[in-house]
Give the backbone structure.
Amino acid sequence: MKKAIKIILGVIGITLVVLLVLVVVNYVQHNLVASTGSNGNYEMAYDSANSTGLSAGSGGFLSKTMNVSNQVRHESAQEDNGDVEAVIEDRMIIKTGSLEMVVEDVSVSIEKIAEYTGNIDGFVVSSNMYKRNSIPYGQITVRIPVEKFSASVDTLKQLGEIKSERVDGQDVTEEYVDMDAQVRNYRATEEQFLNIMKKATRIEDILNVQRELGNVRRSIERIEGRMKYLTKSASMSTLTIDLSTDPSVLPTIEKSNKWKPIVVLKTSARALVEVGKLIANFAIFLVVFIPVWIVVGLVIWLGIRIYQRNKHIKNPKEPQVNFRG
């Protein structure tokens, strides 16, 4: 009986120790190791429209009209070049900015930023909050009208202590002007193909013109889509704000390889408190599940008793016989 109880207690004790070790190790891995973060960047690939041409076997009718189409596009390009200087005077700049600041309350600051952005006709692109090394951390990305960008940055900087500030500008004026010229050229080509369609009589010529006309229109749609993206990006600036109650977890600060014993001490103290909470929670869990442990212990004890009884029945002890002379 005593042996069975020792076995039960040993099994339960080993299980509890293993569970506790796993809990502590899991917490340390997620909270003591420095978290790495990066601002979300996106790239929008753009493929310039391919020049459309007529196939060599499209017939003499289309071959003659190809030179006319190319000439029209060349003349249109020359006319557009005269407007380039006037367009460039009004530069198209895509502004992006980033702020890193220490605040008293991350969630409250994010709510204030979102409310302010809505009041100036902007909108929130993304917002998230979590913990780095047990320290509250948040990031919010907003789009702000470009004419209000500078004033908005100055206003939002008052929410906390600024640790890092950056503003970038990308000049896309030449790209926009170039695409506008391409669209004008394709429009002229489209008009020529429509005229060719009216004069074509053979089915082969009509099909070839329709195919080339479709290619021209797809190119126009692709370029105009990129132009709309540039226009929208230039009218609405992007601002990304990183917030925390401790500067050590901000992206720019944490990239530094300099040893910071104070930061390590604070992190270790927070981890110790959290591990203590986990141990207390684990103890409460064990107490609440005492009935389960009793049932498990009884099942193990009954199993051992049945095993010993069956073993005794199969191998009964032979009576000892004493021989006396």
